[in-house]
């Protein structure tokens, strides 16, 4: 890691569809206003704290600003009510309404960030890039879901057993205000039979920005059909397939992932010889 970054933790209030939410945010080197902004979108059970220090590492190496935040229902953000069930379209709502509201609350709505998504966060990044192409510079999507596979459902069912019969709830309590509400919102909707029809492939042709689609060869939550499906439809897509890597490249192979991301981000900003 190249030095330390200025990290600013904030809670911001947003209003989405008539309801108020407090959202936990961490801004990395916000003073670097002339540098790219990377927005990190966590997985289905993630939060600001669960990223650990990897966003800081990447932003330092890439000389970028960063925004890390916990979505509604995660981390220290507003928990979901116990009687609220997430709909099949919950990721669409995050992309269309919540993500723009968070950026606006932080005064970042006029920027064109680079988005890095992981798992559910990748699907949200893909949807956002399709819905708001003019507001997206590029997206890097790790272990994305564009449709539901049997391997995904099987692994989520195993996660359910682990949550019921191991110390996983105690571990999650370190990272979420209410770990039970967080876990069951995600687990219940993915195991709902209606969710088997969830599919975002029809949105992919609307993506105009460069895409880096990343997946571990040993991903237990999806096959390479996910990133290959993106590559077939979105012409400006580069594939990054990582050996000896499961569902979380930033944990399993951070050096390889960082190298791929730095090359990708650098390609977005070719060096101008006249500025040397």
UniProtKB/TrEMBL annotation:
One of its GO terms (molecular function) is hydrolase activity. Pfam families: Abhydrolase_6. Residues 38-260 form the AB hydrolase-1 domain. SUPFAM superfamilies: alpha/beta-Hydrolases. It comes from the Bacteria. GO terms for cellular component: membrane. Keywords: Hydrolase. This is Alpha/beta hydrolase. It comes from Pusillimonas minor.
């Amino acid at each position: 890691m190249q030095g330390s970054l200025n990290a600013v933790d904030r809670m911001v209030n947003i209003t989405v569809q008539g309801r108020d939410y407090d959202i936990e945010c961490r801004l990395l080197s916000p003073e670097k206003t002339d540098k790219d902004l990377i927005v990190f979108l966590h997985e289905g059970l993630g939060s600001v704290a669960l990223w650990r220090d990897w966003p800081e590492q990447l932003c330092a190496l890439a000389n970028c600003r960063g925004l890390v935040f916990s979505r509604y229902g995660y981390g220290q953000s507003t928990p979901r009510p116990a009687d609220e069930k997430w709909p099949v379209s919950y990721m669409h709502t995050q992309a269309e309404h919540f993500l723009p509201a968070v950026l606006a609350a932080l005064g970042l709505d006029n920027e064109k960030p680079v988005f890095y998504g992981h798992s559910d966060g990748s699907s949200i990044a893909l949807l956002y890039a399709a819905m708001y192409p003019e507001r997206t510079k590029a997206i890097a999507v790790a272990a994305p879901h564009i449709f539901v596979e049997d391997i995904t459902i099987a692994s989520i069912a195993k996660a359910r057993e682990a949550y019921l019969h191991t110390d996983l709830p105690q571990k999650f309590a370190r990272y979420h205000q209410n770990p039970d509400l967080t876990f069951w919102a995600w687990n219940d909707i993915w195991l709902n039979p209606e969710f088997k029809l969830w599919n975002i492939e029809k949105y992919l042709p609307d993506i105009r920005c460069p895409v880096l689609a990343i997946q571990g060869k040993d991903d237990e939550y999806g096959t390479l059909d996910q990133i290959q499906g993106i590559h077939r439809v979105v012409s400006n897509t580069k594939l990054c397939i990582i050996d000896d890597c499961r569902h979380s490249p930033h944990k399993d192979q951070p050096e390889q992932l960082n190298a791929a991301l730095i090359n990708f981000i650098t390609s977005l900003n070719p060096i101008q010889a006249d500025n040397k």
